[in-house]
C-alpha cells in the first residue's frame, strides 16, 4: 500500500477513553491491522479509505475486584479498496478487537474482520 487512506467517521480518542488499551491512536492501529489483513489476501491491494459507520460498540468485562480485564470493541466499517488487478471495491463489515487479561503480564489483543458485503464499484 502506498500513501495514506482517507479515514472518516471515527470518534476522536478523547471521546472514547475506554479504547486506551488499544494505544494512543486507536484509529491508526485499526487501519494498519486491517490493511495488513487485506494485503495477506491480495498483496496488490490498496486501501483508499476507511469510514466508521457508527459509534464503536464497547463490551468491557470486570473481574471480581471491579477491574476491567477483558474488553471487546467492534467497529462497523465501510472500506474502499482497489484490488491487485486495479478493480475498486466497497467492503462493508465489522472489525473487532478482543482484549483479554488486560493490565496483566499475559495480556493479549486479537482482532478479526467479518465481511458483510462486497460490491465492485
Search tags:
121 residues, mainly beta, six-stranded mixed sheet, 1 helix, 6 strands, 13% helix
Structural class, from helix and strand content? mainly beta
Number of contiguous helices = 1
Distance between the termini: 19 Å
Order of helices and strands: EHEEEEE
Q: Which strand-content bin applies to the residues?
A: over 45%
Oligomeric state of this protein: single chain
Structural overview:
It is a single chain. Helix content is 13%, strand content 47%. The chain has 1 helix and 6 strands.
Task: Offer a concise description of the structure.
The chain is mainly beta and 121 residues long. It contains 1 helix and 6 strands.
Task: Record the SSE blueprint.
Layout (H helix, E strand, L loop, with lengths): L5 E3 L17 H16 L4 E7 L4 E6 L5 E15 L5 E13 L7 E13 L1
Parallel strand pairs: 1-2
Antiparallel strand pairs: 2-4, 3-4, 4-5, 5-6
Amino acid at each position: 500500500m502506498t500513501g495514506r487512506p482517507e479515514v472518516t467517521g471515527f470518534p476522536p480518542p478523547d471521546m472514547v477513553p475506554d479504547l486506551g488499551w488499544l494505544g494512543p491512536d486507536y484509529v491508526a492501529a485499526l487501519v494498519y491491522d486491517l490493511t495488513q489483513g487485506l494485503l495477506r489476501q491480495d498483496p496488490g491491494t490498496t486501501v483508499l479509505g476507511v469510514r466508521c459507520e457508527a459509534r464503536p460498540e464497547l463490551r468491557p468485562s470486570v473481574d471480581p475486584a471491579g477491574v476491567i480485564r477483558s474488553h471487546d470493541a467492534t467497529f462497523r466499517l465501510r472500506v474502499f479498496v482497489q484490488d491487485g488487478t486495479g478493480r475498486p471495491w466497497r467492503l462493508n463489515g465489522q472489525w473487532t478487537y478482543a482484549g483479554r487479561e488486560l493490565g496483566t503480564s499475559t495480556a493479549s489483543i486479537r482482532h478479526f474482520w467479518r465481511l458483510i458485503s462486497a460490491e465492485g464499484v
